[in-house]
Structures are given as C-alpha cells and as structure tokens.
Amino acid sequence: MLDQIKGLHHVTSMAKDARQNNAFFTGTLGLRRVKKTVNFDAPDVYHLYYGDETGTPGSVMTYFPFPNIGKGRPGVGEVGTTVYSVPEGSLGYWQTRLAEQGVTGLKSEETFGEKRLRFDGPDSEVFALVEGKDDARIPWSKGGVPGDEAIRGFHSATLRLKDGGATAELLKFMGYEDVDTSGNIKRLAIKNGNGADVIYIETLPGTPFADLGAGSVHHIAFAVENRAKQLEVRKALMDTGYQVTPVIDRDYFWSIYFRTPGGVLFEVATNEPGFDRDEDSAHLGEALKLPKQHAHLRPYLEKNLQSIGN
Question: What's the CA gap between 37 and 192, in Å, rounded?
Fold first, then answer.
C-alpha cells in the first residue's frame, strides 16, 4: 500500500460560460480565483482555478469553460458529487445564502452521520457542503462569506461506478482504507491527509455510462508532496499494470494521469511549485497567465477571450 498520497489535490470540470462560472464560485461560494490561465490543449479556452487564499492542494476546483459545449449527461464512470467542508453549525447560513441567490437543487440530508446540504452548480453539476468536524484549514476571508461559515476546502468526492470493486481495491492500494458502507455507497478515507481525505464509491450497476459535457467532472487529482514522491507512485502503479502518462509540467504542479477500472480519469499532482510561482500571492488570479508555448497568442487571446470580471 502506498503512503505518498495525502488526499485530494483538485477537481477539474467542464462548463459552458466562463463569466457565469466565475460569478458562482467567487460570488456565491465566496472562493478565491487563484489562477486565470488557458487550457494547454485548447488555448482559446480558459482554465480557471478557485480555492482558498493560496490555492492549497485539497481546496481547488478548476474549470474548462467551452462556450459551444453541449450539456453533460450524468451516469456511471465519473465523479458524481464534489463535497466541500464547512464549519459545524453553518449549514443554516448556507441554506439561506444559496436560496437567496437562486441556487437550485437544495436538499438537506445526512450521510454516514454527517449533515450535508446538496445543491446544483451553474451547469447542473452536483455539489454538497458537509459540516466538517475539527477542520482547522483557514478559509479565504475576502470572498464575502464570514470566516465562521466559509468553505475550508474539499471534504470528499463521490465516484459513480457500475461496479465499484476494482476501483475500491485501487484506492486501497493508493493508501485509502475502508471506513463504512451504507447501502450501495462505500466510504474510504486516508489517514494523516490534507483534510480532503474521503472518497465515496456509489455502485449503480443498471445506470448508463456518463457523457462528458458542461457540468461533467473531467478528472479528479490526488496530492503528493513533491516530484520524487510522484515518481514513486508512478512506478508502483505501472508495476501493478496501470498505463500511466509521463510526468507533465502543468506550470503550478506536475501531473501524471491514468484511467481507473471504473472509467474515471485519475491524476496524481504535486503540491509544488504552487500558484504564486508567476504572480504575487496578493494578486493571485487577477492577470491572464499563459503557458510559455502559448505566450505568442496573448494579443489574440486578450481580444477574444470572454471578459469574466474580477
């Protein structure tokens, strides 16, 4: 069993409208936009990152907003629900805030003894807030949400799978442990993680596979401290038979990718070098930052990318 993985690093999804996406995460949820850059493979599309003050691994939701993308179809083989941690006693505040801002899909529920509030994102993707116990992570304090209620970072993510057995074994190989089972949902967690420590596997054998589109999670990333730890994970996965990409420089972290037995794309990303490598931490996410291979496109991109505001 591996011990290098320390919980979630980030979750990356697809969206249709960049301005709407930015307004939801920075305004409605009160997160900080920590980076405004572009998709490495489609530079005419933004890559937007939202998290805590510095974009700490385990707090960052990222989006590719494709203006002409169709709506995703939920199903198996994907991340179903992305869950944030909020302080105990704060769900009432969030129920009122989200309702006042017209957020749809609001539903109070309890899962594995934890109170949670489900809601829809702007592209009908599913999120939830969980009252995390003893979550000492420091939230972004300038997003319009009081610190006593503000989002701390990720709590967990749910994988929707036709058959969860092989993916559960993979997660246990990656350092996760079985915690509990309720009906068709299995809860796994990693010890001594970064706070974003839980993965749920929801088994839905009769459900069709998902179709990728606006509102779909593209991939889910797990955190390792540095490149040396990442190489150890890569070798172990390959020795086990997984087809893993070479290490890819993503400017703010290094990444490797592989497809899981259930169809979900996993990434293992480093905590280094961080989002302050190319702009001062006081001004994260303000300027358009471009990968060096796309720097020559700046005049075109600045003219043609949608204005998304502060």
Answer: 32
Angle, vertex CA 136, rays to CA 134 and CA 140, nearest 5: 135
Q: For the chain, what percent of residues have pLDDT higher than 70?
A: 100
Q: Beta strands 217-224 and 265-273: pairing type?
A: parallel
- Using the 8-state DSSP alphabet, how is residue 171 labeled? H
- Confidence class for position 310, pLDDT limits 50, 70, 90: confident
Task: Answer whether residue 285 is part of any domain.
Answer: yes
Q: How many domains does the chain have?
A: 1
* Residues of the domain holding 254: 8-304
This prediction's pTM: 0.97
Q: What CATH number has the domain bearing residue 57?
A: 3.10.180.10
Q: What is the radius of gyration, based on Cα positions, of the chain? A: 18
Cα–Cα distance, 14 to 151 (Å, whole number) = 21
Beta strand pairing call for 60-65 and 8-15:
parallel
For 124-141, how does the pLDDT look when each residue is reduced to its tens digit (9 = 90+)?
999 999 998 889 999 999
